[in-house]
Amino acid sequence: MNAPFPSPTKPPLRLLIAAPRGFCAGVDRAIEIVERAIEKYGAPVYVRHEIVHNRFVVDGLKAKGAVFVEELDEVPDGVPVIFSAHGVPKSVPAAASQRGLDWLDATCPLVSKVHRQAERQITEGRHILFIGHAGHPEVIGTFGQVPEGSMTLVETIADVEALELPEGKELAYLSQTTLSVEDTAAIIEAIQTRFPHVTAPKAEDICYATSNRQAAVKEIAPKCELVFVIGAPNSSNSLRLAEVAQRMGACSQLIQRATDIDPAWLEGVETVGLTAGASAPEELVNEVIARIKELREVESEEVVTARETITFKLPRQLTA
To answer: What EC number(s) would the UniProt record show (predicted)?
Structure first.
């Protein structure tokens, strides 16, 4: 009796890992501020809003002694408080000082740069068109740097077309740092078309990390049927990475942990991409890679499109 033909073996799953990915300099700095504050002051140290949008990171800091609250009035007297990497309205540190609280500002320096630009444009008599997502903490923080009514939020090209502004008013535009590079460019073009004399920022407001991570996804996504993006559902930069992958022709799945992966997603897939939002640690990337290797034989390759060497200084209270 002839032996049966051997069943065909599946080819290994090709895994393309985007670089840069994961933590940016602003997130590294914010997390280190919380950790150093706990070392210096002892637990508990209070943090207004999630220090960064990642549950794994937040839970890790909670275990070390950080307490996360939404508003300053939840912070008891006599304990330190830290403001998140997304930035806060000016009224928040003012209220903390009025209460005599020791406070530390973990706002990303690139967000702070946008804050300073907003103040300067208002001082020079311009009304600001701010490109961003309503309700995002960074948008709320930036609007809180300037007098009420001196800035208008635009989220889409349709918003630009619907604007009703006083005749002769000088205009400037700024943007949230974590937006889609392509969408923002299209909105800026619409602003400049409608308001040819609008003042542009001296440098692009979308941060280097957001741009670099989107560029890396653009490189790998056309070669993939599926791209995993590790990030939180409230993380703007992570959501934008998922959108970029879809626009480049791949399916995308935003996941927070390896346990979110449905094995059915990998059925019939030959090439998978993997990236992580700027608030997701490399530990989660390694966890996802390990999970994929449990499900399929894998040949992995890191695709590097940029090298990041930027670091930001810590507040003087923590380095003195």
So the answer is: 1.17.7.4
